[in-house]
Target: dTDP-4-dehydrorhamnose reductase
Amino acid sequence: MKILLTGSNGQLAKEIISVIKAGKCDFKNISNNIKDAELILFNSQELDITDMDLVKNVILQNEPDIIINCAAYTEVDLCEINEERALKVNSLGARNLAIAAEMVKAKLLHVSTDYIFSGNSKTPYSEYDIANPQTVYGKTKFLGEEYVKQYCSRYFIVRTSWLYGINGNNFVYKIKSLASKNKSIKVVNDQIGNPTNANDLAYHILKIIETNEFGIYHCTGAGECSWYDFACEIVKLYKLDCEVIPCSSDEYKTRAKRPQYSSLDNLMLRCTVGDEMRDWRKALKSFISRN
Model:
């Protein structure tokens, strides 16, 4: 089996590589089929997914069985300024990979986001809920999903949220750094979502790609919380002497609107390959114990 991975220097891609090489995630072994797979890695400098001809040539030369697309323009506020760049990477890049995957009859797993929803719900979003993105980032990621569905017949779209991993610039490390330097920090308590350990997500991605259970998946940590709750748990687990003070989103002006409520329901996982995502507190404790 050949697995081609784009965006290989990113937080999620590095976790996927680590799990494959170790043959296991934090809580379970992966299959021997995946463990023994040939990994073909491309970072964004080596493979510009916005270049259609280059993507086609690379895929035709390597003939992978599976393509995992972790390449994305994820700077939410910068997407509002660099709309063309966001469209090229998040939408056209996904389209190019979908077209190339179909040429070699490869499966394509495309990673997406909770930002494709409006954030105005009161209950977790299921895969069948209607997308209504409110930001350039969300709109371009959703268009990428549409291209994948249009051009590839063997696709998995995996939406996740509030992701953190060992190799990444994420909320956990940000709070750890701020809480280590300050006696108090302010964190918004009116945005709700699902913290997701990249190790858990990587395991499920590798489980999904072995199947023919094609379609859209939500894959986030179990349970929901606010950024304030998340920060409190981080400070507690790192045993830092810092007070976390709740505040409203109005106190933090951002160029891109953040979803007020973006919890996802892993309904498709439960109905197909099985949902083994850990409770977000348990997964966070595991993560912090490792670093």
Q: What stands out?
A: The two ends are 32 Å apart (CA to CA). The chain has eleven helices and twelve strands.
